[in-house]
Design brief:
Number of strands: 4
Number of helices: 7
CATH topology: Arc Repressor Mutant, subunit A
Structural class: alpha+beta
Strand content: 5-15%
Strand order of the largest sheet: 1-2
Order of helices and strands: HHHHHEEHHEE
Number of domains: 1
CATH architecture: Orthogonal Bundle
CATH class: Mainly Alpha
Distance between the termini: 49 Å
Radius of gyration: 18 Å
Length: 188
């Protein structure tokens, strides 16, 4: 008897890697779902509130909530209340989340090379300290410093669309707090 296609797909397209003894598989358990790295990217770009993330990503609210919950449970993001009635939170990257910055930058640079936006990169990364460009090893081309997320800033590139987070006025200026990079922290 032939099995239904959905049963076959369910076995083939599992969303876990329990039989894999591999750090890559372990990382994919945390951030390998299609929206997860885009959420991390947007938080790095300064979008911290649910409605901002939902609007920019054009993601279903229930899907976004599920991904945010998963990232929170995995210690990638933290929830910080910004309003009591009704209770609303901002999402900030933890140290574990900030440690994804090299991955985000590598994916962005790979995309800029092999799947570039028509008008060029949407984001260019600069060293906060001297304004130098950042190379593929996250080294400042001007001063030679090895950079971490807090050392870099994202600027709108030639391919940035008018609604890009780096071009939007900030409705809540206090969104950048200690413990998270400032809005525009180098990812795009």
């Amino acid at each position: 008897m032939m099995q239904p296609i959905t049963a076959k797909l369910g076995r083939m397209l599992r969303n876990d890697y329990e039989n894999q003894a591999c750090s890559i598989a372990g990382a994919l358990e945390v951030v390998g779902e299609r929206w997860s790295l885009l959420i991390v990217r947007d938080i790095l770009l300064g979008l911290r509130r649910f409605d901002e993330l939902q609007s920019h990503l054009a993601i279903a609210r229930n899907v976004l909530q599920t991904r945010l919950t998963r990232l929170h449970e995995q210690g990638v993001i933290e929830r910080i209340p910004y309003q009591e009635r009704p209770l609303r939170h901002e999402y900030r990257l933890t140290e574990k989340g900030l440690d994804l910055w090299p991955t985000i930058v590598a994916l962005m640079q790979w995309g800029d090379r092999y799947a570039p936006p028509e008008k060029g990169p949407a984001v260019v990364i600069e060293h906060r300290g001297c304004g130098g460009s950042v190379d593929e090893h996250r080294i400042c081309e001007k001063c030679g410093a090895k950079l971490r997320a807090r050392d870099a800033i994202g600027r709108p590139g030639p391919g940035a669309k008018p609604d890009h987070p780096l071009l939007r006025p900030r409705a809540h200026a206090g969104a950048s707090a200690a413990g998270s990079p400032a809005a525009g922290s180098a990812a795009g």
